[in-house]
Design goal:
There is one protein chain. It is built from ten helices and eleven strands. It is an alpha+beta fold and 303 residues long. It folds into two domains: 156 residues, Sandwich (Jelly Rolls), CATH 2.60.120; 111 residues, Arc Repressor Mutant, subunit A (Orthogonal Bundle). Strand 4 and strand 5 form a beta hairpin. It starts with 21 loop residues before the first strand and ends in a 9-residue tail after the last helix.
Length: 303
């Protein structure tokens, strides 16, 4: 399976064709928020406002403090779990080409092209105390307000704020310039992980066993489990169940399907097990989750 049409790649329409910029805001009321492992070709900037989380980016485990800003560079595999109630964050997602200019100039050559080519990267984490954090957080809060208001000229102001943010990072020497090229082994490992996630999402409805999944990648079950957990921070079956539960959450919020139908369509043949696992992961029953999701709210969880 090639990455040209990956299933585990998060494929979402960001904004519009002419303005591919999207804001996702999350307000976790009960401490059960979880985003399963995924990747996308766009840059993601996450601003943690309240609460705490466990974030894993390309195998690196982070516990950012409130006020932290995380940059998830294109194609990096990431997932997060809320740690307690009250998690609140904004996430901005857009392709790096969004920052590109139609005409070559100094800015394009010096800063934009290196980001597009991957010879420069955004910093993974800006925590409170970093010289760039106060101004960056101010700009991103202003960006969130602007995106929610949707006033005339919003698009111009959004791009202006993103350039101002980039300027702040450049001024404080926060960009990671010329990162070491990954070795062939590292590239192969990340591609294998992407294919593993793709395979799982493509076969969510099926009754997959550990032997079947590991055989698909020519590994023994023990080695497969060790490889998966070392790089994604969880066991393969836990990840598979989390992907299934995430799909179930989407169906509970967006359809009128019966709980049993949702259970079956997400690969759970035992309704009682599905309800028990859902409650353990989300903190509420599927029916309660559906009722809570239907309640009016200022913000809604998205990845």
């Amino acid at each position: 399976m090639s990455d040209s049409t990956p299933i585990s790649q998060e494929i979402k329409s960001r904004g519009s064709f002419l303005f591919p910029f999207e804001l996702y805001d999350t307000d976790d009321r009960d401490g059960s928020f979880y985003v399963s492992p995924h990747w996308h070709p766009e840059l993601e900037i996450l601003c943690l406002q309240k609460g705490s989380m466990r974030m894993v980016i390309d195998g690196q485990v982070l516990f950012p403090r409130p006020g932290s800003i995380l940059f998830i560079n294109p194609r990096e595999i990431h997932h997060l779990t809320s740690l307690g109630t009250g998690l609140r964050y904004d996430a901005f997602v857009f392709p790096l080409e969004f920052l590109s200019f139609g005409r070559e100039d100094y800015c394009q050559q010096t800063w934009i092209l290196p980001l597009l080519k991957g010879t420069a990267l955004f910093p993974r984490l800006l925590e409170p105390g970093h010289s760039c954090q106060p101004e960056a957080m101010r700009l991103l809060k202003k960006l969130a307000r602007l995106q929610r208001q949707d006033l005339p000229g919003r698009q111009l102001f959004v791009k202006a704020l993103l350039y101002e943010l980039l300027g702040c990072l450049v001024r404080e020497n926060a960009l990671l310039s010329m990162p070491p090229a990954p070795t062939a082994a590292q590239v192969k490992k990340m591609e294998t992980l992407r294919r593993m996630l793709s395979f799982m999402e493509e076969h969510l409805q099926e009754r997959l066993t550990l032997d079947e999944i590991s055989a698909r990648f020519y590994m023994t079950p023990n080695y497969f489990c060790r490889f998966f957990k070392e790089n994604l921070g969880q066991t393969p079956m836990n990840c598979l169940n989390s992907l299934r539960l995430e799909k179930a959450c989407g169906l509970l919020k967006s359809t009128d399907l019966q709980i049993l139908e949702i259970s079956l369509s997400c690969g759970f043949n035992n309704l009682s097990y599905f309800i028990r696992l859902f409650h353990r992961q989300m903190g509420v029953s599927p029916s309660r989750y559906r009722a809570e999701a239907a309640r009016p709210s200022d913000v809604s969880g998205e990845r």
